């Protein structure tokens, strides 16, 4: 049984939904300038949520949704990355939060979801410590302005995915060494957010929001177990160990050492790192990864072209495999509901913090019928199976406090544009035809409404 105060929500991010990419003083982010394949939608209009948030929030409220995860774009609040604050944007989000509260919806706010101001990227992005200082200024503004309206803050969306699949997510590639210097700066930025949130809004709670999923060994061969240990450390535990325990994960440290990376750790950061911690964990989960140890002489380039799939490889450490026991979705992502239960139990064993599932969902080709329905029984069964796993984990003592699936409304997928839909609510547009952007609740919306009404029973 799920607890009575379990939070039923839904999630989106700003750049994938808002559009209005150059309105009201917003500057360009790395997402706005990211090269996209020609036939894939860009983020200029997206789902037009910036102009239609009222309608979207009201539809979610009608489904009984109690929490909505959004992100705020840095490029709206401080268009130059640092310096002057854009009051029009501040006023916009006051209105958004007011609308949510009027609809009894609790905001869960991500401070930054892949959309670094381009001006900061031009100066080195997360490789430059100035970006950390700029982030400090930015989140200080958020906590001061919205601290009375927001109780749940999420720091930086999926720094692990951002760094591991950098070209696909950010549009540029860090070298191996740069990637781990960016790791350090991102994690320091997160620690600053924990500290400032607790100082400025003591009634607020804050947590990290990585993409966490158990890495399986491809066989019982001891080398494959080592491979899974390495990729678990590189993909998952290095991030959460830093956030929650204030340490560099030892296997990750050994991996850095073996690959010749000297991550510059500043001794003067020690106090910040070891005395500021999250109140809860936000966790995004889609799929699991299975790996084996690489073999000598394999003709592969190191790299991770899509961290959520099997296409991962690092010479001497791990190689992604197809897991013959799992099915894949239409976009080739492995579907593994039991993996969520396993992952939740592992995360609970390691960190003992309340957990909110801040993303989980199925990207699929949906069809809108002539009478404006979407019969997405495949999405219902994905969500149902994952919720069952959450309930099982709760029954075995894991403190999961909320479920905010991806996504509330259809949005522009990071990798595959508009054709890959995640929403409970259909948004009527295609990759290149904006149509009228009308909203139509899908079958999964009505199913979720019923789930919420019965608290998951
Ligand atoms: C998560 C991101 O990694 O995966 C989301 O936080 C993203 O922004 C989601 O949309 C699904 O990925 P994709 O590529 O299918 O959009």
UniProtKB/TrEMBL annotation:
PANTHER family tied to this protein: 6-PHOSPHO-BETA-GLUCOSIDASE ASCB-RELATED, GLYCOSYL HYDROLASE
Lineage start: Bacteria, Bacillati, Bacillota, Bacilli, Lactobacillales
Keywords recorded for this protein, A-Z: Glycosidase, Hydrolase
Entry protein name: 6-phospho-beta-glucosidase
Family classification: Belongs to the glycosyl hydrolase 1 family.
One cellular component (GO) term of this entry: cytosol
GO molecular function, one term: beta-glucosidase activity
PROSITE patterns according to UniProt: GLYCOSYL_HYDROL_F1_1, GLYCOSYL_HYDROL_F1_2
InterPro entries listed in its UniProt record: GH, GH_1_N_CS, Glyco_hydro_1, Glyco_hydro_1_AS
Native source species: Xylocopilactobacillus apicola
Domain of life from the UniProt record: Bacteria
């Amino acid at each position: 049984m799920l607890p009575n105060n379990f939070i039923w929500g839904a999630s989106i991010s700003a750049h994938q939904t808002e559009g209005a990419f150059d309105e009201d003083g917003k500057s360009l982010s790395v997402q706005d300038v990211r090269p996209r394949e020609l036939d894939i939608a860009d983020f200029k209009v997206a789902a037009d949520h910036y102009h239609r948030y009222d309608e979207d929030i009201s539809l979610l409220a009608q489904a009984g949704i109690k929490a909505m995860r959004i992100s705020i774009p840095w490029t709206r609040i401080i268009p130059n990355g640092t310096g002057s604050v854009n009051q029009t944007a501040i006023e916009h989000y006051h209105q958004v939060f007011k609308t949510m509260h009027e609809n009894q919806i609790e905001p869960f706010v991500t401070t930054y979801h892949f959309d670094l101001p381009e001006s900061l990227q031009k100066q080195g992005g997360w490789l430059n410590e100035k970006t950390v200082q700029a982030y400090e200024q930015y989140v200080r503004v958020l906590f001061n302005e919205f601290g009375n309206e927001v109780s749940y803050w999420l720091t930086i969306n999926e720094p692990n995915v951002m760094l591991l699949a950098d070209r696909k997510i950010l549009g540029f590639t860090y070298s191996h060494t740069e990637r781990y210097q960016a790791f350090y700066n991102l994690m320091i930025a997160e620690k600053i957010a924990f500290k400032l949130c607790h100082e400025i809004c003591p009634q607020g709670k804050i947590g990290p929001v990585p993409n966490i999923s158990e890495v399986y060994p491809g066989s019982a061969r001891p080398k494959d177990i080592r491979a899974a240990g390495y990729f678990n450390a590189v993909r998952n535990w290095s991030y959460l160990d830093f956030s929650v325990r204030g340490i560099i994960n030892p296997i990750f440290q050994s991996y850095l050492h073996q690959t010749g990376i000297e991550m510059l750790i500043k001794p003067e950061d020690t106090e910040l790192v070891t005395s500021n911690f999250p109140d809860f964990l936000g966790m995004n989960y889609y799929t699991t990864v299975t790996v084996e140890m690489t073999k000598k002489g394999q003709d592969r380039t190191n790299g991770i072209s899509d961290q959520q799939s099997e296409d991962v490889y690092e010479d001497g450490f791990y190689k992604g495999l197809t897991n013959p026991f799992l099915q894949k979705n239409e976009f080739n992502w492995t579907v593994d509901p039991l993996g969520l239960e396993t992952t939740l139990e592992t995360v609970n064993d390691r960190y003992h913090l309340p957990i909110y599932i801040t993303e989980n969902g199925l990207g699929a080709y949906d069809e809108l019928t002539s009478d404006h329905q979407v019969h997405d029984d495949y999405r219902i069964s994905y969500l149902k199976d994952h919720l069952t796993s959450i309930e099982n984990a709760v029954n075995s003592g894991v403190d999961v406090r909320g479920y905010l699936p991806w996504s509330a409304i259809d949005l522009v997928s990071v990798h595959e544009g508009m054709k890959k839909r995640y929403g409970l609510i259909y948004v009527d547009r295609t990759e290149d035809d904006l149509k009228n952007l009308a909203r139509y609740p899908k079958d999964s919306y009505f199913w979720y409404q019923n789930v919420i009404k019965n608290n998951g029973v």
